[in-house]
């Protein structure tokens, strides 16, 4: 099994109030294990760890990674 790279950081910048950043676990069953709520203009620096294998961002935000920048899209009401 490959050792996780703990140097993988990225940034989530909220473009509206109430953006959720949700950490998902590693292992056989993927589960939510941590959640943060950001308000407009707030920035969170995120790191993958031995417990976090994925992150879900809900709400209007900019995600800056070593691979480039992506913005979330607002879903249809």
TrEMBL record:
UniProt entry tagged with the keyword Cytoplasm: no
Any single GO BP term: DNA-templated transcription termination
Domain Tryptophan RNA-binding attenuator protein: start-end pairs: 6-73
A molecular function GO annotation: RNA binding
Keywords from the UniProt entry: RNA-binding, Transcription, Transcription regulation
HAMAP family assigned to the protein according to its UniProt record, in alphabetical order: Trp_attenuator (MF_00798)
Subunit structure: Oligomer of 11 identical subunits arranged in doughnut-like structure.
Family per record: Belongs to the MtrB family.
NCBIfam families assigned to the protein according to its UniProt record, in alphabetical order: PRK13251.1
Protein name, entry field: Transcription attenuation protein MtrB
Taxonomic classification: Bacteria, Bacillati, Bacillota, Bacilli, Bacillales
């Amino acid at each position: 099994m490959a050792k996780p790279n703990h140097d993988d950081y990225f940034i989530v910048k909220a473009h509206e109030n109430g953006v959720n950043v949700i950490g998902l676990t590693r292992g056989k069953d993927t589960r939510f294990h941590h959640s943060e709520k950001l308000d407009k203009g707030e920035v969170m620096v995120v790191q993958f760890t031995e417990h976090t294998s994925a992150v879900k961002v809900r709400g209007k935000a900019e995600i800056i990674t070593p691979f480039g920048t992506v913005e979330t899209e607002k879903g249809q009401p």
